[in-house]
Each structure stands twice: as structure tokens, then as C-alpha cells.
Amino acid sequence: MSRWIVSTSLLASLATHFTLAEETDDCHSQPLEDTRVEKAYHYLNSKFCQPALWFDNFFVDDRITEDARAGTSVRWYNDFIYSEGGDVDYSTKLNARLHLPFVSKRLKLIYESVGDEEFLDFFPQDSEELENALGLRYDAYAKGYSSFNIKATLRPRIEARYRFTYPLTTDAVFRLTQRVYQEKRETGEITDIDFDLSLSDDFLARWSNFAGYNDDLKGWEYGTGITLYHYLSQDQALQYSATITATSEPYNHYEYSQVSVTYRENVWKEWLFYEIIPRYQWEREPYEKHTKEANITLRIEVLFNNV
User: Any keyword Signal (predicted)?
Assistant: First the structure.
């Protein structure tokens, strides 16, 4: 199973690379007039030609959606997961951001499928852990290199998020995100630090790190990950990733690690996407040996923006 998944990912990479029919733009990372996700994200967009903006846009990364200040967005995706051993699982997730008429554009109605884990960027969520949450988000500040917003949902949960993005050079970007939240009786904080390096017009490397503490766990959770993005065309891209997360409770040990390849393509209509994600992962519970599993995911996604 694992050999087949590795072979599938390599063949997908080679096949898509040699079947490109169009030339890449000189700076494909710059948002176009008909871009699928709003253009007004950050001061950085208008000052630099960073591939990170295109990749985060295309893969609908949280780094983009959390700073999006205009319009309406609805994202619904369905995952079909085939695991080593023959098990087939299905999960669905819906995220929406709706502009409220007759009120400030800074205020949005949000609907999210969220999990108990806060570190969504580092590993996929099990559908059994997801809960639906309706709430409001207020984009209080977005100027220069900084942005700040407040989000409240009916879980109940309230969260304040501050982000600082700074271009170290025209090819390297530093990003700091700080979150403080209160959920029911649990208080916690999460710190994310990213470094983006543009290797060329077609390749971007990202090193992501996080550390989080909450008074329910009374300990730290932390992790690191490397992602390589590969631009194929305006409708196709690849993402190679390796991540690991760990905890300090009841002792320092890793909880989850994975290596994966994601192929994403926009097909038929501008709002329809699919992804193929072969993955090999390791998990470990305290005082137990780690378990490992190979799986492959087919994701069908519907994405509407400014509807």
C-alpha cells in the first residue's frame, strides 16, 4: 500500500509537469482581476511579487482567509479517504464568510467546521472531531504589515488574533501570528511563526512552527513543518509537506507526524476543484508504541467567492 502511494505521487508529479500546455506568467503570484479569492488581503500584495500569495490563494490557506476583508466566501469540501487495510472513510466540511448588508464591511457572519485541535495547519482533521460553529468576525485593524481581528462563535468561544508580516528581502518573508482565546472554561494561546522563501517563480519553500498552551491541558503543544509548493499552471499546483507535532504532557513526546503530496486542480468551472493526497502518517499515544498508516484522499471542493 505504502509503495503504491509513493509511486502514485511520483507519477502524478511527473505527468502533470510534462503535460503543461501554457507558459507561466512573469509573476503569476500577483492577483488577477478575476482572482477567486479577494485581492485586498495585505499591504504586501501591492508591494511585492511573492509566489506565497498565489499559492495561499490557490490552496485557500488560512493565512489568506483570515486576512480577507472584502466580499463573501463559501467553501464546501468532501473527502473520500482510502486507508491501508481497505477502510474507506468520508468527511465533509463547510466554511463560510458572509458580508452583512447595511453594516460595516469589517463585520462578517462566519460558519466554520472546527475541531478540538487548534493547530489546523499542521495535520488533517478527523471528521469525527469536527463541530459546526456559527459566529461573527470583526476585522478591527489592517494596515501596513499588521492586521488584527476578533472572532466570537456559539461553541461558545472568543478569539483575538494579531498578525505581523514583514518582507526580509524580496524573496524572503517573516510572519508572526498570535492568538489568545477563551472557550467555555478553557483559556489558551497559540503562537505561529512562518518563514517563506521564494526559490523561483515556480517554487516556494515554507517553514512553519507553532507553540500553544491552554490551562485545561496545563502543558504545551508544539510542532514544525516544511512545505514545498510547485506551480504548474494557473489551474494546477503541487504541495509537498512533512510535519510533526508534539506535547509536553504527560511527558515530552511526539503525537503525530506525516509526509504527503497534494495535487490540486481547478476543473470544468472556476468554482470546482479536486485534490489527490497520498499520505504516510505516524501517531503515538502516551506510554504506547507509535502506529503508522498509509492512506490516499480524494477531495472534491466547491468554492464560491463574492457571491
Answer: yes
